[in-house]
Amino acid sequence: MIATTPETSLRLRVLTRLGFWGAVIGGLLLPWGIMLAVEVVVHQVPFARAWRSFTLHLFAPGYNFFLIGLLTAAPFVVLAVLILLHLGAAPVQDPLIARRRTLGLAGAGLGMLVLAGWTHLEVLLHPDAQGALAYLYLPVILLASMPIGYGLGRAIARILLPRPPA
Amino acid sequence: MTGSASSPTILAPREIKLHLLGLVLFVGLLGLWYWLSTGARAVPTLIEMLQDDDPSTRIVAAEQLGQVGPAARAAIPRLLAQATEDGNQHANTTAAAALKSIDLTSARQVMTHFMPRLQDQDAQQRRTACAVLGSLGPVAKPAVPALLAAGHDPDELVRRNALMALASIGIPSPPIVAALLEGLRDSSSLVRQTAVTQFAFTVPLTQPVVTAVTPLLNDPNRSIATLARSALDKARPDDATQLESLGLMVQHSAARDYALHQLAQLGPAAGDALLPVLPLLQDDRPLIRYLAAEAIGAMGVSATQALQPLRLRREDPDPVVREAVAEAIAGIEAAMAPAESSGKAARP
Question: From A81, A106, B22, B265, which residue has the greatest number of CB atoms within 10 Å?
Fold first, then answer.
């Protein structure tokens, strides 16, 4: 077992809190950020106009950007709770456990982020009549990808952070 | 902060609980934001938006007000102005469509405003009139004769818009189906395509329609042929499963108006769906009561048991619903008369 310095313990604590709130807020803001970015960067709409159009359609029937944000955020909230309960409950005395868990959760989060970002970009860049269905399937796909990402992260952690011989 | 420094875990149980509580509060705040921004609470803001310089703002505001329904009565004057005076056709149609869900009398006012414009010298005025009348849906039933005439307009866009409006109104079904069948033989491919689109997506199929649409499978215009295929692949009104699913949809508020509109177009064939429709004569929304009365009236003699509930609605607070109820009673009684007389004649 590696002894923990108070500095390491503090860093892990801050990381857990940031991870928790980052997953919640990031999951909610990700689709909205992509919508605005596509308007400004791809469609060359001035930011002020893009922002106005975005706020206008937040609760508009047939658009409901608010609901799209919530649907995408839901699996990230699950990830946030996992961060809190899994990483937050890691023993302070063995930072290797916390670090391995951190890499596992980072793998899950990164995988979800890439999948969600790619889906939103695809829907916005190549719109079609059934495109909005992706928003309904996305939470399920993200939840399914979470254990896969976590497993990959843990596998990388085993390679990068081997337990020192006793 | 919460005793984490002395905790054996990275976060102390107390801090974990506090974060979870924070998450619950955050979700609660999002819920509050949604609640304040939708339904009747949003009406004052949406009325302000109807006065915006940007047409897209006025359009979205009108759409949202339509979703709110009768609780958005305060928006009626602004919506009426937008439906009849706005220079943007999309703003006109969205305001008219919203009024249909809020107040039937106001929707009829819009109809009365646009009907004379179907004979305007300016083709653009006639096109807009057709589009707005279509956006009123079945509420614009009295405009059907004028729209049938517009189906012979020299301007192909007027003819196209007239057919779209007729399909959107849908009732009474026989003359509308006849006009759409005529549209299938129009000299303009745009009008022919519009007519077959209505059979593919909006208007229920009948045997004469199937006969008329079948040759279009070989139409040289590929999109017309594809739309004809979609129309013929669609479930038929005489399909019991289709009728059953419409009956189920009637019981779910999200698709209620669509299902009632379809049943009203099916006429006597929809008789089996009478029971789920009857309670809707007492619905809170005038549009639903109106559509229920229209659907029951179209069922004719198979809706005999609806006469008593219909008579109870003769004093409906909405004059347009009252009119539809009176028409439905008269229609059912008229359908019963020949049935009764033939029954008497058959007796020795």
Answer: B265
Full residue range of the structural domain in which residue B190 is found: 111-234
Note down pLDDT in tens along chain A; length 166 residues.
555 677 778 888 999 999 999 999 999 999 999 999 999 999 999 999 899 889 989 998 888 999 999 999 999 999 999 999 999 999 988 889 999 999 999 999 999 999 999 999 999 999 887 888 899 999 999 999 999 999 999 999 999 988 777 6
Tell me the H-state helices in A83-132.
95-125
Reported ipTM: 0.90
The candidate with the shortest Cα–Cα distance to B244, out of B211, B218, B273, is B273
Same domain, B124 and B178: yes
Both tokens of B249, joined, read 């949809």
Q: Is B346 exposed, middle or buried (0-12, 13-18, 19+ CB in 10 A)?
A: exposed
User: How far, CA to CA in Å, does A40 sit from each of A29, A53, A60, A131?
Assistant: 16, 11, 21, 21
Closest Cβ–Cβ partner in A60, A77, A88 for B63: A60
Here the CATH number for the domain that contains residue B261 is: 1.25.10.10
Tokens of B118: 């179907």
* Among candidate residues B234, B265, B295, the one where a domain is terminated: B234
Under an 8 A CB cutoff, do B10 and A87 touch? yes
A-contacting residues in B 67-96 (Cβ below 8 Å): 67
